[in-house]
Amino acid sequence: MIYIIVVVILALFFxxxxxxxxxxAVIVERFGKYLSIRQSGLQIKIPVIDRIAGxxxxxxxxxxxxxxxKTKDNVFVKMKVSVQYKVVQDRVYEAFYKLEYPHDQIRSYxxxxxxxxxxxxxxxxxxxxxxxxxxxxxxxLNDAMxxxxxxxxxxxxxxxxxxxxxxxxxxxxxxxxREKTAAEYEAEAxxxxxxxxxxxxxxxxxxxxxxxxxxxREIARGLVESVDVLNKVGINSQEASALxxxxxxxxxxxxxxxxxxxxxxxxxNSPQAGSDMLNNMxxxxxASNQVSEVMKNVAKVKKEIKPNVSQESTFxxxxx
Length: 320
Known about the structure:
The chain has 320 residues and is an alpha+beta fold. The chain has 8 helices and 8 strands, in the order H-E-E-E-E-E-E-E-H-H-H-H-E-H-H-H. The protein is rod-shaped. The termini are far apart.
């Protein structure tokens, strides 16, 4: 009997001690009535009389709430709101006794705020202003839950999921917009290439024309020098010009013969053609000189006749 009493006493003695973990609070009741809140460490209670009613977690916790709501442009979206909260250490009593299911209370407030804010916005604005929605949820939750000893640390909208058909349409719109932008850039690049090519061709033609002009200028200078040399040896200008033309004719024939794949045909190209060409050119020069002399004589006669006609008209007026 003594041993039994000793065992019971020892059991009651050990039941008087209990430990509370870090970042936790223990509610102790005596005969069903609130007695005290015990913090972390070794604690003592009266066995049988006192009991541990519950443990309150003081660490930051997270509650994920998934909500389906409609936007202003009648698009249904699913939103995931993550609420980070904790029990205020000085208000453990309110957190334990005033709310039986705190998660349900938080979830109800999140539903209420989100379904009041999202229908005011279009789908694109929901994505752009999700932070504003999160701030509104936090503000509403703080005002409501602080009374029950809960502090809302942060609210995050971690996911916005429209209907699959809406997402596909948005992707098509985005793709079409990017294709439009790409087409504009390609058109601009093509325009730049065309302008650059036109400028290059214009510059090339300008330089080509300048080169041809310089070439002809040099050819003309060479012809003048050739004519001067021929004049010094007794050949007049007409004969010298004809001789130069014939020489160029044979130079062209020589150049054509040097090319294997040339399709150019210079007519006439017989041996007699050079002599005929020279005679024709001399004859044309002679005829040109004769015509020039006749024109000079006609002009001279007109100049002599015009003063006489003027004098006769003056005499007639005097007689009248």
